[in-house]
Amino acid sequence: MTLHAKMAACRADPCGPLIAWADSKVHLEQAMKTTGIIASSAMNGLLASIRLGGLDADTVSARIGLGSNALFAESDFMPLAAFTSALEVASEETNDPIFGLKLGKEFEFQAIGSLAALFLTAPTLKQGLTQFSRHFPALQSNSRSELVVENDVARFSYSIHDNTVRHKTQDADFTESLLNTMLAATIGEDWKPSCIEFEHMPGDNLALYRSQLACPLSFGRRENAIVFPKKFLDRPIGAGGDEHRHLRIACELSDLLYHREKRLDLVAALKAWIAAALCQHASIDIDHAAGDFGMSLRSFQRKLAENGVNYADLRNMVRMEIAKSLLANTRLSIPVIAEQLGYSELSAFARSFRHLTGFTPARFRQKSGNYTNVLRG
Q: What residue stretches are annotated with the HTH araC/xylS-type domain (predicted)?
């Protein structure tokens, strides 16, 4: 089918994609049985924003496992756990519990690519949000975005459904803040949500949340959501949309959803899980991994064996690749690196590193050319 014919089909069903939504929904449900992925463009945009904010993006990249091609080959997508971990690490590195909220305000919405263009070329907010939600799996899998209208209230929700993504508070804060900022830019000065809802609890940071979001807040909810008056849905986006471009983007994203099924293989998914757990100083024992991947320990070990993988060897490899990246590209001291990688003693880290690389950590750092201004730990 030619692009012209596809666009004619899209025009005949302006609120839906060229590919039947039922097919896309089945496709999404199948994808949600695997480990989540996200477009690399979103990660690149996130790291660029972190760097512009004055934070050492090299440290963030190294800690989440993106500082080494030995862990994840270059691709147009990457583990969702790496994206959520980047936000959690940045929050920890800055000692800022609402880092995600602040970054969401400054993040360029257009950086998420075609999905942003799809929204911005829609004629009204209702169609923009509907199309955004419908095509969201093209940006990020194992997640749900949905617009629900009931009586005079609209609710635009977002949530991650992936047991291998353990920590997602900063991701929720970042996403809700980004979407709220995007809606404010679309609606104008009279924009004010009725409520912003979060899955997580605020802990001791309720006052900080209120300082960033000038509207009622609710925590411990079923999913993250922005609630607002239905009347806003009829507002035009920009000058009222660009129908030709909007239909073209919708068709392209529909084709992407239907024809290209992106999945992480088990080994790549497990590498991302280990790196994310290390970022949060959480357990990386095999029984915890099996549980998060939805398997019994015996089934998990059998699946690894089918892939020719020994869990302990893979865990050590992930640790060492992250260690090499931290030694070569950051100013963190060797004791701090050892601690971040879950070693209770520096000597254990040094022995393991030398056994697997042939160098002591200090010699490897020197060999990499990273001589100066190393932080003391």
A: 268-367
80 touches 162 (CB < 8 A): yes
| Structure confidence by residue, pLDDT tens digits, 41-98 | 899 999 999 998 888 899 999 999 998 777 887 788 889 999 999 999 999 999 999 9
Residue entry with tokens 């790291």: 47
Directed axis angle between helix 346-357 and helix 311-329, to 10°? 100
Could you identify the residue written with the tokens 């190393």?
374
Edge to edge, the sheet with strand 217-218 lists 143-150, 153-160, 224-229, 195-197, 217-218
**Which residues have CB under 8 Å from 311's CB, separation 6+?**
270, 286, 289, 301, 304
Of 277, 280, 328, the closest CA to residue 69 belongs to: 328
Strand partners, 78: 38
pLDDT of residue 251: 92
Backbone angles phi, psi at 218, to 5 degrees: -140, 135
What pLDDT digit, counting tens, does each position of 218-234 carry? 999 999 999 999 999 99
pLDDT digits (tens, 9 = 90+) for 133-165: 999 998 999 999 999 999 999 999 999 999 999
**Residues 65 and 82: beta-carbon distance below 8 Å:** yes
What domains are defined for the chain? 3-259 (no CATH), 308-368 (1.10.10.60)
Q: What is the pLDDT of residue 77?
A: 87
| Residue count (the chain) | 377
Place of tokens 């068709």: 251
- Give one DSSP letter per residue of 343-361, joined into a string: -SSHHHHHHHHHHHHSS-H
Amino acid 301 reads: Q
